[in-house]
């Protein structure tokens, strides 16, 4: 009888828990930006399409930073990559103070861009890092488990945003609450940097082939010298990265996945206000439930992956999202609003599962592949603006647009996930 691989190893537990906490941090930041979307509409008098540029600033940073972050990680290791990401994250948060003092939307967008660079670095590093903390056969479960804490972060974000930004009328002219919120975030991030500096990261072997010892990659030449032919072969794949079809489609699927996420999240509060008649603060409170559905979906998905292949789960959840979007677009009161909540349940496993499926069997290409898959997040930079153009007239009908995105993800989970060379 073949023994199933363990979820992780005892020596990795402290590191695994710490890296998992990073998923929570960028979950908080992403979901607060969706509250900022509505807050800036009120305070800075922006249209829905103009406020969609908030997501453009954050997700656009992924396009510019993912490749440099991957190169930095490959050169200096996982731990230093995490520290770099946290420092950029904190810098972007502190930049909200002068932006608020100047009441400048362009300055806010610059701060969001720097903050996004930090999050892009963390995501580029954290996913292969978590995948490396155990056997490849359980990497899907580990990444989905860590992403469950990202979902918890997305619940905390709207709660903070609702209480600090949208309390009362939600249309107060000053930005003092924005400064307070992001100064606090920056301080927390600096504290995490200090704590992680004292964490000793054990030597790890990439879950997808390449070895790392003490946060420094073992090259194919060293592996061959040691007589480890299998490790040498894994560390130096015969094909170039873009000759692996499943990786190319993972980048495409991630582009459309985050596009759908950014649009769906970005106009949630607008949907609650315009279609359901909620106040801004009440709609933000419902967003906590919205994010709780994602956490529930990730917990359920991680458990079901013990019995159901990850790619099948991905295809099924993508189909469920398509159906929910069509129901939301009808604007049928609580029936459609319940479907809107369910979108996040089905969305839950998509990001980590696409990521993990895209990294399969890439050996020494793993770190570079992680950069490109993270770069696919740039889809979230453009889609909210497009949805905003429709939402300016009818926010419900704007939810037809993500159906196209989820159809691409459905195809990836159904057939395009297979490890094949082009």
Automatic annotation (TrEMBL):
One Pfam assignment: MFS_1
Transmembrane segments: 12-32, 52-73, 80-100, 106-130, 151-169, 181-199, 247-271, 283-301, 313-333, 339-359, 371-392, 398-419
GO cellular component term, pick one: plasma membrane
Gene Ontology molecular-function annotations: transmembrane transporter activity
Localization annotation: Cell inner membrane
Membrane topology: Multi-pass membrane protein
Record keywords, A-Z: Cell membrane, Membrane, Transmembrane, Transmembrane helix
Major subcellular location class: membrane
Superkingdom of the organism of origin: Bacteria
Protein name per UniProt: L-fucose:H+ symporter permease
Taxonomic lineage of the native organism: Bacteria, Pseudomonadati, Bacteroidota, Chitinophagia, Chitinophagales
């Amino acid at each position: 009888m073949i023994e199933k691989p363990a979820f992780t190893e005892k020596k990795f537990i402290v590191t695994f828990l710490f890296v998992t906490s990073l998923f929570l941090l960028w979950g908080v930041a992403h979901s607060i930006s969706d509250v900022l979307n509505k807050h800036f509409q009120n305070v800075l008098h922006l249209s829905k399409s103009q406020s969609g540029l908030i997501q453009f600033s954050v997700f656009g940073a992924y396009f510019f930073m993912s490749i440099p972050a991957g190169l930095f990680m490959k050169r200096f290791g996982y731990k230093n990559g995490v520290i770099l990401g946290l420092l950029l994250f904190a810098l972007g948060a502190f930049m909200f103070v002068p932006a608020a003092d100047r009441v400048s939307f362009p300055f806010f967008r610059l701060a969001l861009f720097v903050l996004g660079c930090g999050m892009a670095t963390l995501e580029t590093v954290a996913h292969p890092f978590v995948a490396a903390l155990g056997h490849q056969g359980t990497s899907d479960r580990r990444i989905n488990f860590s992403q469950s804490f990202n979902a918890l972060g997305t619940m905390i974000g709207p709660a903070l945003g609702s209480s600090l930004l949208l309390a009362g009328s939600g249309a107060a002219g000053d930005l003092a609450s924005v400064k307070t919120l992001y100064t606090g975030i920056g301080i927390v991030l600096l504290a995490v940097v200090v704590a992680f500096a004292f964490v000793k990261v054990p030597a790890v072997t990439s879950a997808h082939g390449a070895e790392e010892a003490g946060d420094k990659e073992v090259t194919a030449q060293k592996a061959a010298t040691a007589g480890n032919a299998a490790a040498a072969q894994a560390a130096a794949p015969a094909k170039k990265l873009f000759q692996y079809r499943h990786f190319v489609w993972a980048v495409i699927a991630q582009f459309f996945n985050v596009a759908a996420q950014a649009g769906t999240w970005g106009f949630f509060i607008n949907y609650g206000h315009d279609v359901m008649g909620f106040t801004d603060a009440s709609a933000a409170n419902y967003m906590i439930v919205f994010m709780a559905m994602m956490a529930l979906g990730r917990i359920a998905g991680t458990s079901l992956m013990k019995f159901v292949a990850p790619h099948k789960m991905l295809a099924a959840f993508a189909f469920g999202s398509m159906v929910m979007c069509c129901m939301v677009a009808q604007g049928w009161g609580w029936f459609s609003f319940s479907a809107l909540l369910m979108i996040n349940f089905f969305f839950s496993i998509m990001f980590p599962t696409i990521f993990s499926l895209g990294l399969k069997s890439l050996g020494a290409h793993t770190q570079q592949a992680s950069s490109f898959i993270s770069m696919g997040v740039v889809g979230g930079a453009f889609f909210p603006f497009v949805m905003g153009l429709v939402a300016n007239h009818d926010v419900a009908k704007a939810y037809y647009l993500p159906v196209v995105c989820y159809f691409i993800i459905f195809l990836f989970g159904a057939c395009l996930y297979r490890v094949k060379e082009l």
